[in-house]
Amino acid sequence: MKDVTRHQRWQDWINLLIGIWLLISPWVVGYEGAQMAASWNAWILGVAIVVFSAIAVSMPQAWEEVINLLLGIWMVLSSWIIGVTSRAAQTNAVIVGLLVILFAILAVAMGRDGHRKAPMAS
Questions:
Q1: pTM for the whole structure
Q2: Among 3, 64, 68, 100, which has the minimal tally of Cβ within 10 Å of its Cβ?
């Protein structure tokens, strides 16, 4: 018998990859030296997204998706809150944040078993 609670959702795997991208993006995009606040923001949020996505991959729960949703919201807003001036860092943060939000919402909408939840009958 298949253990449905351990079924892995593809959205969690994508958020895990997005977290890894966020960890390396200051070097790849080239803002690690001039924009230390943006770099630290990317590194800390990258680790957090990787950790919570890894937890969601191994034991899917709604609270991991809520945390990823909040991390995504922070990424979208963080450049302006912490005063990032690099256009590349801002763009990266907004795109990553929106993707994390999107995949966290999709993971919740798809439910534990990886399939779209059926609407409840009235």
A1: 0.75
A2: 3
**CA–CA separation, 13 vs 35, rounded Å?**
29
B/e letters for 86-122, b = 16+ CB within 10 Å, e = fewer, are: bebbbebbbebbebbbbbbebbbebbbeeeeeeeeee
- Residue 45 vs residues 66, 107, 110, 119: alpha-carbon distances, Å: 15, 19, 24, 34
Nearest in space to 11 (alpha carbons), one of 117, 119, 118, 99: 99
Polymer length of the chain: 122
What letter represents residue 62's amino acid?
A
Note the pLDDT tens digit of each residue in 90-110: 999 999 999 989 888 887 777
Helix 62-81 to helix 36-58 angle, to the nearest 10 degrees?
170
Enumerate the domain spans of the chain: 28-110
